[in-house]
Amino acid sequence: MKTSIKFLCWGCLAVAALVCGIMIGSVYVAPDQLWGIIANKLVGTPLPDGINPSFPTMVLNIRLPRVLMAFLAGAALSMCGTVMQSVLQNPLASPFGLGISAGAGLGAALVIVTGFSVGILGTFFMPLVSLTFSVGTVVLVILFASRLDRNMSNTTIILIGMVLSLFLNAIMSTLSALSPTYSQRISLWQLGSFSSQTWSNVLVLLFATVLCLIFFLRHGREMDVMTFGEERALSLGVELKHTKRLLIGAVAVLTGIAVSFVGIIGFVDLIAPHVTRRFFGAAHRRVLPASALFGGTFMVLCDLAARTLWAPREIPIGSITALLGAPFFIYIYFCKHKGA
Predict the structure, then answer these.
(1) Burial of 147 (0-12, 13-18, 19+ CB in 10 A)
(2) Per-residue pLDDT tens for 198-222?
(3) To bridge 220 with a disulfide, which of 1, 246, 282, 285 should be the other Cys (CB 3.0-4.6 Å)?
(4) pTM of the predicted structure, to 2 decimals
């Protein structure tokens, strides 16, 4: 099957998932009502007869931002996972292994416990703090790695990232234990949620995702070469240390922005790269956008399950992705080795 046909099929699946995510919930919105609401907003056509007066507000201000945020977060994390697996040449590598999520979580926990805020930033204060901590964590990883190993080998980066991640998680757990009043809120944030999303959040993550996708695609050739090993990359003229720093830095920013808005959500960044490489090959100019499509679709469906399986209660999205992602990833991983 041609690559263009594959992308078309995956795009149709993504649109279908988005539509289902908007229609299905505690209150069902019929397809004709959904299209009528969107057409009314875009071109001013009359709303369908007999529609519930609360439906337009619910669709436009609650469900649509939530579903789009889920898609963008899944797309962003999946792209970051693809880049990390290529840069570190490790099929189990992910942004979270470098302590990005732990850093963002610690920043959010500090804001929750201290109650500190800056009025001019409003609701963006916690995401900004989380982003700062996540990027700071990666800076520490790179600094330690460059001090211990001038060549910044992948093994050194992974080990330092894992140690720092465990250390930051320990601090976060201590804060939660010492502040029982806020422990539940911290725990829920760590498990992730797409509730209460705004159009401002969607636009910020959309801008960051598109910008980073363009940046990653511009470095697609370098990542293609790096997958064959560090020595091969050096022999072909890739400035390994510089390229690693740039790509890991971009991953830290994008992951930090996504995590700062929706909390810590794992496994999608591990699954998406493996699935898309099976269908689209190893070239990053194809794998990156395909990973974004798959990850976004997967996250929308997981969010749909999170808010409908135990309605009216909502299951944390991180629990859903772990329950679905862990066995699926094991299946993909062992099938890959069985075929090798």
Answers:
(1) exposed
(2) 999 999 999 999 999 999 999 998 8
(3) 285
(4) 0.91
